[in-house]
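Re: the multi-chain job from yesterday

Posting the exact lines I submitted so nobody has to dig through the queue logs.
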Amino acid sequence: MSTKAKEEQNTAESILADIAIKAQLADYSPIKGCMVIRPYGYAIWERIKEILNKMIKDTGHENAYFPMLIPESFLQKEAEHVEGFAPECAVVTHAGGKELTEKYVLRPTSETIINHMFSKWIESYRDLPMKLNQWANVVRWEMRTRLFMRTSEFLWQEGHTCHATWDEAQQETLTMLDCYKTLLEKYLAVPIHTGKKTQSEKFAGAEATYTIEALMRDGKALQAGTSHNLGQNFAKAFETQFTNDQNQLEYVYQTSWGVSTRLIGALIMGHHDDVGLILPPEIAPYQVVVIPILKKNKDNTEILEAAKTINNELQAAGIRTKLDDRVTISQGHKFNEYEQKGVPIRLVIGPRDLEEGKLEVHRRDIQSKEKDIPRDGIATRLQKLLAQIQKEIWQRAVDYRTEHTTIVKSIEEIETALDKPGGFARAMWNGDVALEKILKDKFKATIRCMPDDKELDASQHPCVLSGESSTNNVEILVARAY
Amino acid sequence: MSTKAKEEQNTAESILADIAIKAQLADYSPIKGCMVIRPYGYAIWERIKEILNKMIKDTGHENAYFPMLIPESFLQKEAEHVEGFAPECAVVTHAGGKELTEKYVLRPTSETIINHMFSKWIESYRDLPMKLNQWANVVRWEMRTRLFMRTSEFLWQEGHTCHATWDEAQQETLTMLDCYKTLLEKYLAVPIHTGKKTQSEKFAGAEATYTIEALMRDGKALQAGTSHNLGQNFAKAFETQFTNDQNQLEYVYQTSWGVSTRLIGALIMGHHDDVGLILPPEIAPYQVVVIPILKKNKDNTEILEAAKTINNELQAAGIRTKLDDRVTISQGHKFNEYEQKGVPIRLVIGPRDLEEGKLEVHRRDIQSKEKDIPRDGIATRLQKLLAQIQKEIWQRAVDYRTEHTTIVKSIEEIETALDKPGGFARAMWNGDVALEKILKDKFKATIRCMPDDKELDASQHPCVLSGESSTNNVEILVARAY
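And the result, structure tokens for all chains:
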């Protein structure tokens, strides 16, 4: 990596940490690589959970909970899987004052333990499909950690399903990828590319991995979620079989899929400015903060009552609000706090405004202020404004991605594009893994995915590696990534 | 313990396991003492979370998340705490392929790590009160485990708060105890005694522990939740200080409080019969199961449509329902499944019923069936029936407890009462710890609490140990416990 690239990386990391700390989303903990998720950060996670959990249930899944400890021998049953995860495992060797006869690893993901249970529960086609999900903490011991983006312990959901046919498993894999796309685009206002990973980038143990790839405002790509068609790999390792309707014994076809607290990292690096975080209204824990101008050691009854009335009015209209009625904290301090936290709208109520039937509305995403907004019909007005803000934050992210996507025809063009403007390089590829080695060694970049949204004509556009065009070539997105 | 008592214990345990497995609430896992919470059990946990989480937020708390790994040295900072928890800890000694320089324990509870963060976040009285809660998994390595009641890993919520005064901390401790009481009595239909624990039974590190004690149908008491006034114990160990409004440095006053998946154990052992679980409607994941009588290889369109219409009608009325439209499973099998799962009402729709505008309603708690319930107004009728079932399940539990509470005046009377009828022995006590030793050694019993609901006259009723009456004596509830 060039010095410039390294510098940019350091800057990006300090932006991430700076915003996360100042917005009180998270804090460093005394445990290596582990963070504390503070109430405001956790409230965002709860909002993500609320939205996604509904999608997961609406698509026919049930939640369950499996042990966090996994016998070390389980991990070893699937060859690729152990190779992928063993180096990152944290290991419990002692418990209850004694050394354990078999060591346990803290789950880095739960395919193994869940397959053990599947093989106990599934007997016949009548038991299929079995579609489970769990919300849980997982541990992957990382050398280099960053708040939200890569922490030794993180929170996630992991779905695990069993099906009678490969087609059904494939359909499930894509259905969940689509749920993730909706979550990211409609709620987080983060545009993503869906697509398949290359063999070298797929999940350890999967037949195929599908990803949602986002672009952060520092020009780096982020794998924001993945959905795997596991084929029969784990089923064979764990003997997860069923009797089909022809009375024959078969291995089940499986999927797994997950998103994590990394999504909060996607929000931070997707939407921010020099002041701090900018939250899309759909995902903001509170969309409007109501701040009455209070005076220390004076009677604030009237203005507080007015603020409460307005606050109730907004909530009744379905707007998520917070009323900040603290007298011990100055107004300037409050303004600053909510700007750093990215609250979409600040509604300020002063004594004079009240008399005149007017309110001050501050819009966080463009830091604009309007002083004379009529008090009457404020809820309807703010509802419309929130919808507009959501739309504009989304459009800015789309525009940024368009400006940071370069169509390239050679390795040299990839290099240039990665440095400036940064972001994605869109290319054709003949599938030769030599390209992935070059990208990794020379540019610290990877093929993020073979995108579903295609723009190039394979018969015309040459492979970046061979320079030859062919309808066998595949379209790829290349980027430096988190 | 007598042979009889041991036999009863084994029977009770097999009842617990039998119901939990057959109702598909949980299953054994290959990890010692850890269970898998299956979808139906997890749905009950989600319902508990939904209710309690609202209470926790309505009383001014915020959710957060702290690391699961705790440096071993943290546990040792509070003397009583380490003594209480060190023997039960699971220890991570290796991670990322290397031996760790400092070992981590898997949180048995989080006072230590949270206090470390509190001391970083709290500076002045303006930061107080700080009232946090987390929903998390914890690990306590137990010798003898039982599904839901005592597992090596379990799910719970743990609240942790800091206050400027002792009085405020005490108020908080009792407020949360009261939330737990509401959860247990109003929703789980499990009557409980609130009360203070004796010094020997309190939480390791607390100044005082308050408990909710329930009575199970095997005559054993269950500590279903606790709320601790921690005083300044952890604050002193972790230097959690604040500048008060007189500009003086003080240690904060703290509380912590928690309930766990053990509550599902309370449901099982609180409400069951020979057939299986009996769920109170308020906590049931689905209150009504709608079963259309389907015929294999025949056209079931009409009856399925009718079932869907009725199901939607019930849901629109706010009733939680499940429509079981599986054709591959026989009707008898379905009836059996939902009876074992304790679903409060089974609504059966047969072709003839449809013609006649009538439905079959089966009530799980008393296993009664009515065939000719009018189709019209079914939602209103079932709403009323659900309320009635809730009330009657509650009353049966109250009656059971009344019948299994004996007022005693001597140690001999305690022994007799514990064997028959079993349950609680209510007594007076002069506070001499010798009693606790006798109870433990001779009867495997403990003082469950000094109940808030008092029935005895201290000046008249003698201490079970000394035989003397005194207004200094305290009222106690003694029982064998889970």
